[in-house]
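User: Run a structure prediction on this.
Assistant: Running it now.
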Amino acid sequence: MSLLMCSPQHKNETDNAVQKLDPRLRMVLQRPEQTAADTPLEVLIKFKAPLTPEQQAELANAGVNVQTTLGTIATATLARAAVLPAAKLDFVVYLEYAKEQKIAPDPVP
């Protein structure tokens, strides 16, 4: 069963949360067989404003492990099951699946 499916009474709330997810993260949720259930997902999270201690606690309660924050952006890890609860938080604007960046060596010796 897909995490993007829900009961009718929560449909609007879930639809709004899903719209906060980047397409690659949506794909991960729709294809759970591609990642183990307990494999933490690395994400970038955009907030409406810098996080307050109360908001950090809400994220932790939703299963989000915030690693680094810079203004209104944070890096975090979370389980697949925690993605939608995190996206439903009103202060969360967007969640993006982290991309691995490879730094090319400097061509100048």
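The CA atoms of residues 55 and 91 lie 8 Å apart.
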